[in-house]
């Protein structure tokens, strides 16, 4: 099957660098798929799950939002943080979820609700990816 190159990069490391059969990205306006020879594209990504197919098997990656750039059969994802399923520390994500839920339960000026909501989304998405390992 025709392939494209997928590179998922954070400020710390390259998380994925593979020839893959297809990718589904969590775009801010909805999920979108990318196959070999896709037209050039630049899209913002939201906190979510990136899925790619390699040797007919699906793999899952947590993405904390960022950008996807498709050019010359290469899809580059730049994310603040990203982890493949087996690198996710489930206990840490559960703690992060509990912390965020407690913050969101407090409704006063000391809590940045948008920040707590984003932390909760990251934790939930990490837990969703972790079960795919
Ligand atoms: P926490 O509150 O647990 O730090 P966070 O959502 O604030 O979670 P981020 O700011 O998204 O964390 O990430 C900071 C760094 O920690 C990144 O390098 C990210 O890959 C890593 N990281 C965060 N949570 C986890 C996790 N559950 N498992 C593995 N790595 C994680």
UniProtKB/TrEMBL annotation:
The keyword Membrane applies. The keyword Ion transport applies. Pfam families: ATP-synt_DE (PF00401), ATP-synt_DE_N (PF02823). Residues 87-130 form the ATP synthase epsilon subunit C-terminal domain. GO terms for molecular function: ATP binding; proton-transporting ATP synthase activity, rotational mechanism. It comes from the Bacteria. Residues 4-82 form the ATP synthase F1 complex delta/epsilon subunit N-terminal domain. SUPFAM superfamilies: Epsilon subunit of F1F0-ATP synthase C-terminal domain, Epsilon subunit of F1F0-ATP synthase N-terminal domain. GO terms for cellular component: plasma membrane; proton-transporting ATP synthase complex. It is a peripheral membrane protein. Its main location: membrane. InterPro entries: ATP_F1_dsu/esu_C_sf, ATP_synth_F1_dsu/esu, ATP_synth_F1_dsu/esu_N, ATP_synth_F1_esu_C, ATPsynth_dsu/esu_N. Keywords: ATP synthesis, Cell membrane, CF(1), Hydrogen ion transport, Ion transport, Membrane, Transport. It is found in: Cell membrane. Belongs to the ATPase epsilon chain family. PANTHER family: ATP SYNTHASE DELTA/EPSILON CHAIN, ATP SYNTHASE EPSILON CHAIN, CHLOROPLASTIC. Produces ATP from ADP in the presence of a proton gradient across the membrane. F-type ATPases have 2 components, CF(1) - the catalytic core - and CF(0) - the membrane proton channel. CF(1) has five subunits: alpha(3), beta(3), gamma(1), delta(1), epsilon(1). CF(0) has three main subunits: a, b and c. This is ATP synthase epsilon chain. It comes from Candidatus Desulfovibrio kirbyi. The lineage of its organism: Bacteria, Pseudomonadati, Thermodesulfobacteriota, Desulfovibrionia, Desulfovibrionales.
